[in-house]
Each structure stands twice: as C-alpha cells, then as structure tokens.
Amino acid sequence: MSGTLENFTIVIFGASSDLASRKLFPSIFQLARWGHMPENFRLIGVGRQEQSHEEFRAFVRSRLLEHSPEAAADAARLDSFCLRLFYARVDLDDPAGYARLRDQIMSDEGNGRTCRNLMFYLSIPPSLAPVVVRNLGAAGLGGREQSCTGWRKLIAEKPYGHDLESARELNRVIDEVFEERQVYRIDHYLGKEPVQNIMVFRFSNGIFEPLWNRQYIAQVMITIAEDFGIRGRGAYYEEAGLLRDIIQNHGLQLLAAIAMEPPVDLDADSIRDEKAKILRSVRRFNIDSVRDSVVIGQYEGYVAEKGVAPDSKVETFAAVKFHIDNWRWSGVPFYMKAGKNLAKSVTEIVITFRCPPQNYYGPSGGAACSTPNQVVLGIQPDETVAIRFGAKRPGEQMITDPVFMKFDYRGTFQGEGLTPYHRLLLDAIEGNQMNFIRKDSVEHSWAIIDSLKNAIDGQAPELYPVHSWGPESSRIYG
Ligand code: BG6
C-alpha cells in the first residue's frame, strides 16, 4: 500500500507530551508497519529544548519500547522507523522559530519531496494553540497558503478551548489560517469501534429505529466511569475539572450519536450536520434547573494530589440530567454520569424502553413493569450490544426474570484491531472528517457546559469515597 501513498510530513507540536509517547508514536509506528504510511514519510517533533535529531530519535525509541509491544518485538522496523524522525526546536511564541521550521520542512531533508503535503498535530495545552496557528500562518505554513501545491491539514487535540469564548477565538484564528475542510478536531472516543458502531446499529437495522424516540424510550443513561484518579495531571485538572475533561467532549459526543437523526448520506458534513443539530437542541441550564439536574463530586484525597490546591473546589465527578428539546426526544431524560476514582472502569449507554400498557407479570396493579426492556451498548472494557427482556422462569409459576441477548465484538470479529488513534490518524491522512468535530459542534458543546458551570458557580462538590459510585445524592441518576 505504501507505494501508492502520497508522501507527507507530520509535524507534532508537543512531541515530548505524554499523549505523543503513549498514543501518537505507537499509532504512527503501527500505521507504518501496516503499510498505511508512505515509505518516505517524515515526522518532525517540535519542542522547546535544544536537541539533535539523534537525541530525539533515541527519545522516541525509548518511548516506543515502553508503549508499543509491536515496536519492541521488531528491532529492524524500529530502526528504519527512527530514520524517518527529525527534530525542530521552536519557542512557540517566537516567529523566528517557525521560519526555521519552514526552512527545515522545505529543505526536503529525509529526501522524498515530503515538503508539499503537511500535517500539523497540536498536542499542546489549548491556551497555546492560537499562537501556534498564527505563527504557522505568518511563516507561510498555513492551509490558505496559495504558493503550495500539496495538501495541508491541522489536527487539534482536545481540550479544544477552555470555554465558549476561547473556543470561538481559537476557531476564528484557525479560520484565518486554514479552511474548515483542512481542520481535524480530534476526540478519540469517536475512533472507538463500539462508538462507531452506534450509527451502524441504529441505521442499518430496521427493528430499532422505529422505536428510537420519545414514544417508546423512557430514558437514556450514559456512564463514563474510571476506577483511577487524575494520574498526576493535577495542574491540568485544576484548570479543567471533569465537566470540561470528559462531559464537554466524550460525553456529549456519545449523546449526539445516540440522539441524532439519520443523515442524508454518509458524507462527513451530512453526519456532522445532524450532530450539530442535536447539540443545539440540548437544553441549556440555569440556576433553577441545575438544582434537580446536576450533582458534582470530588473524590476524597483529591486535594492532596500533586498540583492541586488544598481548598480546591474542582469536580472529579458529575451526574447530569440533559434534555433534548426536539420532536424525537421531548420529555426523555438523558442521564450522564462520569467520574474519576469510581468503583470500576466502565463506559456504557443504557437505553431503557417504556413498559407495556398492562403489567401482567409484575406486582399486581403496578404501573411499572418488572423488567423494562433495555438496549445496553458496552463501549469499554466490554465491547458489546445486549438486549434485555423478560423471560419466564422455568417452573409452575409465572415469574419473569430479566435475561440478555448479547453480541460481543471481540468474540465475533477476530484480527488485529485498530486503536482509536490508528483509526483517526488514518482518517485524517485519507481526508475523511466524518469522525472529527466540526467547529459549530464544538461551540454548541461549550455553550451547554458554560451554562451548566455558570449555574453551579461557587457550588462546592460533594466528597465521595475512592472506589465508590460517587456522592450519595447522585444515586437518583441510576
Ligand atoms: C481523556 C481524558 O480525554 O480521556 C482522561 O483527558 C480520560 O481524563 C481519558 O481518562 C479516557 O479515555 P480512554 O479511551 O482511556 O477511556
């Protein structure tokens, strides 16, 4: 495959970041191993410290040996991969550094005419993104640059801004330097196989979609639970908190996938149109509505973490009840629960259906059925789709038990899977924006989170014990 691929250069800002070590380098190595990278691709790592190409290669090699079993097992391939790596020292706010970077790119070092097609990857804090993009533009490396005949792409890592205002400002800066069709805002959740399956499950099967609305669905529950804490990212978490770290992006993207209308076709913009419409329809919060729609929590011991203020009010847990004000979903609560240091790591979506009109098998006269039907979409660690229904327990009596019909991804499909970063990098290389977030959706998501944060302003999070299911008062959220 590599013979037919156009050569390109990938420039990673934040080459010494944890993300680059744990996700980007291993994914790019693996793509090269599978023949999804052109033979003479070039990777330029950008950082502040003085470093030679050789030193950078040694650094990436050590990261790959630690984080990529495939690299550790294939010394020859690792050697040839490292030869494709180069380093550029750039102070992010110094335009002269970008001019040097441009010269380095255009010098065609690594021979293969890689200078024409450029992919910039921003793995840096959101506050630095505008200055990098502006400087790329000023150095003639932007996507609107007419003098270049190749393609240019910008991949921006989350968090994408810090609130609506900063996200708008970043979008505005990017707009000046790149066209929207060249911009790939990454949310790695959209590269997860079971997340990509949500649309397929809904729109390639005739039996679910007729029921997928307020008439038949009683509620939706989205859980993103992790059994570990902030893993040393105190400074980042103090800025972000869980609402910005998880709900603004991963959580709302899952909600959009569950709730969106069928797209006109599978064109990236057709799909993103529908997601944007849903995020626009999510009801904003105010001081009155948050009272019975939001619980925030903080795990015990969070304030003792490195980089965390001793009196920090930052949330590491949130349970939120969303409403979508449109014809399909009016009146159906979308619950979302996410948190750090919870009882176990699990991401799943549970769609609970309404009960049949008469309840023969539950407690007599009860309005509720004993076994509401559910579709359970397991995202991780289980990659499953399960349908829950009531079955008669064998024996004389008419007793109903809940049972499951289950599809398990890994049991059904074999082969080396793609991780989210493989998949999304591959999509970006191929120019498919379907699973990247468009600027309007980013802004709608921030508008939702800003309204929530403003409404709870100053509220102290409830403490919860490590490895519990969060604060007591969030139990009503399922
Ligand atoms: C990241 C968050 O975006 O997603 C982390 O910053 C979180 O806090 C992570 O742990 C979860 O992703 P995954 O794919 O490892 O479950």
From TrEMBL:
Q: Identify the metabolic or biological route this protein is part of.
A: Carbohydrate degradation; pentose phosphate pathway; D-ribulose 5-phosphate from D-glucose 6-phosphate (oxidative stage): step 1/3
UniProt xrefs under Pfam families: G6PD_C, G6PD_N
Catalytic reaction equation(s): D-glucose 6-phosphate + NADP(+) = 6-phospho-D-glucono-1,5-lactone + NADPH + H(+)
InterPro entries, sorted: G6P_DH (IPR001282), G6P_DH_AS (IPR019796), G6P_DH_C (IPR022675), G6P_DH_NAD-bd (IPR022674), NAD(P)-bd_dom_sf (IPR036291)
Q: Has the keyword NADP been applied to this entry? A: yes
The protein's name is Glucose-6-phosphate 1-dehydrogenase
Give the record's GO CC terms.
cytosol
GO terms for biological process?
A: glucose metabolic process; pentose-phosphate shunt, oxidative branch
Q: What does this protein do?
A: Catalyzes the oxidation of glucose 6-phosphate to 6-phosphogluconolactone.
Which residues are annotated as active site? H250 (proton acceptor)
PROSITE patterns xref list: G6P_DEHYDROGENASE
List the top taxonomic levels of the source: Bacteria, Pseudomonadati, Chlorobiota, Chlorobiia, Chlorobiales
